[in-house]
UniProtKB/TrEMBL annotation:
Transmembrane found in the keyword field: yes
Transmembrane segments: 85-107, 113-130, 265-288
Topology in membrane: Multi-pass membrane protein
Record's subcellular location: Cell membrane
Keyword annotations of the record: Cell membrane, Membrane, Transmembrane, Transmembrane helix
Organism placement in taxonomy: Bacteria, Bacillati, Bacillota, Bacilli, Bacillales
Pfam family of the protein (one): T2SSF
Protein name according to UniProt: Type II secretion system protein GspF domain-containing protein
Length: 290
């Protein structure tokens, strides 16, 4: 078993080196593409060649579509195909590293547990990466949903005070004082730069809705585009009706988060309860035996 795992480790290492030489600078342009949370981009370039040659996207269309959809919601439509390939290469990189590490561990120690653990982790980690990506997208949607009613209230107050919709949104963005870490205000800042770059009000708003990819934002965009030309009391009234509905949805999201937080406390509480039982019961059992 040690010789087999040693040969497998050599084969994995040589295979990666050959692929690295073969792809050369073919994917160098993808190195500058911004993506958060990727730690093995340098290792993953050879796997981009494998993904392209083996046409993995055609064999796993549903998986590729879900990954690409999540990346589009996080980074936008532009370069979404390239980001999907980079993410897939990251998954292959983790699998390769764990298989290599497991093979080396078994080759040096002679224990079969090394290759078994490596194989299991090589299968689990890619699934965990995809699950974490979807979780981040859901968290982003919830953060946008929680902040949207606050934004809408500010717009209603400013429009009611005589500001135009465009100017009201700009004032809301400027109130952040350059801090655009929140996904909603980040997209709003992009929208304001599009206005300055020559985009029309309607086109910039539609792009904003597509980048957010949240149903409530689409409803907000539709309401604004249908009513902003009217102005006056009718426009403010329609925004107030939408605001009431969004506040109800915000309450639902808050309740959901509260339930999730309470469910996460169940396991630690059960663990503490078992520890207390052991601490209390062990002396009693020892006394009975004596």
């Amino acid at each position: 078993m040690r010789w087999i795992c040693g040969g497998a480790a050599i084969a994995l290492g040589l295979g990666w080196m050959l692929l690295r030489l073969k792809c050369s600078r073919r994917y160098a342009v993808l190195r500058s593409l911004p993506m958060e949370g990727l730690r093995l981009r340098g290792i993953g370039e050879p796997f981009l060649l494998l993904i392209e040659r083996w046409r993995i996207g055609s064999h796993l269309p549903s998986v590729m579509f879900r990954i690409q959809r999540s990346l589009q919601q996080s980074y936008g439509m532009r370069h979404s195909a390239e980001r999907t390939l980079i993410f897939m290469a990251e998954m292959f990189s983790y699998s390769w590293l764990f298989m290599l590490g497991g093979s080396l561990l078994t080759a040096f120690s002679g224990e079969q547990a090394g290759i078994i653990i490596g194989a299991v982790l090589a299968l689990i980690l890619p699934v965990a990466l995809v699950s974490d990506l979807h979780k981040k997208v859901r968290l982003r949607e919830q953060n946008i949903m929680l902040e949207l009613p606050e934004l809408l209230n500010s717009i209603v107050l400013l429009v009611g005070a005589g500001e135009t919709v465009q100017r009201a949104i700009i004032r809301c963005v400027e109130s952040r004082k350059g801090n655009y870490s929140h996904p909603l205000y980040k997209e709003l800042f992009i929208m304001t730069t599009e206005w300055e770059g020559g985009y029309s009000f309607q086109q910039a708003f539609e792009n904003f809705s597509k980048r957010c990819a949240v149903q409530e934002v689409s409803l907000f965009t539709t309401t604004v585009l249908l009513n902003y030309r009217r102005g006056g009391a009718d426009f403010v009234l329609s925004l107030r009706d939408l605001s009431r509905m969004l506040w109800e949805k915000r309450k639902a999201v808050s309740r959901t988060r509260g339930e999730q937080a309470s469910s996460k406390l169940v396991f630690p509480m059960v663990l503490i309860f078992l520890i207390v039982i052991v601490l209390v019961g062990t002396p009693a059992i020892m006394m009975l035996k004596m």
